[in-house]
Amino acid sequence: MRWESRTTLSLFLSSFLGLSWVLVIISFYFQSVELFIITIAVMLLTYGTRIYLKKAATSVQIENKRHTIKLFKGEHETLSFSIQNQGNLPIWNGELRFAVEPVIHIAQLEVVQNTKNLHYYYVPFFLRRNERKNISFSIHAYKRGATRIRNLQLIIKDLFGLGSRQSSLQGFSQTEVLIYPELSEVQGVEQLSTYEMGSHAYERSLYENLCAPAGAREYANSDPFNRIHWKATARTSELKTKVYERSIEMRWVFILDLSVKRKNSPGQVSNNIEAYISQLAFLCSVATKRGIAFEIHINLEPEGPASSMVLEVGEGNAQLSKALELLARIDDTRPLLSFERMSLLLQKRLSERSVLIRLGEPIQSKEEETFYQFLKSIGHMCYDVKMSDGYAYLSKIERVRN
């Protein structure tokens, strides 16, 4: 951990230190033993305070392990600091100050300052020499988002309050808190049919996976010649036909469009972003329960080298965990991708027939309507999540009539 430190003395000590040598000269001139003793005593106190603050600050270590706390809105968890005094001087009057984004609440700590984007908290502590303490407090998940301990400061004061040394952590704490989005129901998704030939085993499918043989059965006159199982025929002396696993392809592609659909608001994020994110979280949970592979595309500029904010295709609980983490990290202050750029990226990635589910404000532009009609023409099943009377429901994307 890299700290930046500075020492501050009280106005009395700072002023006296500036006049100390003048007072020494005056004491000699007037032969005042009392003034000389007082001046030397205060000078020793000043330098002693500086030495104490420097040694005490450098002996304090704060544990900074990499750790992620994952919560849903409304849940509680404990956040801890491990602080140790490795020196021989006690810390009589220490403070920890830090800031977090307002996605969590810390009720039992004193609030130093509140801003729109950060809440600052204060934790007093006392450490004997060579003592370690765990400073713990309960956090309440308030809303979706991600936060780290920011602006971490260690403040040590001397016993008499004549000076202080402030050490600021350069960078972020390794401890992170993720608040997952709520799951908001989307009606109609339970009737969504995705029966296509593919690789997922399914006993009622009309399609077969030719890469997954399941055995042999008695030959029927309608069976093609290339389906005869010659090894089983030779072994039983009766014609046998190859049997394959029934399979379907159940791949859902979620497209989260966070843009405002108004000409006078280009590049702005919709006010309903939290509703769309909650609906997508629900759809991801449904896909996981049904054993369906899914992927996510979001029209936000990513932080890394990727061209767009994407969750690659996957399935199961591990994929759901990745999806919820991605949704928790969505930052509405990041710039949006233009529709032209987003549509080009999607065309490159959507090479296989899929079920496309779009979330966002209703389609209004002719370009966007044409894009989804094109995807339908090449075999994709395209749906839109719509809102009515506070309820979300799944609807097929149809051509907009003028």
Automatic annotation (TrEMBL):
This is DUF58 domain-containing protein. Keywords: Membrane, Transmembrane, Transmembrane helix. It comes from Guptibacillus hwajinpoensis. The chain crosses the membrane at residues 9-29, 35-53. It comes from the Bacteria.
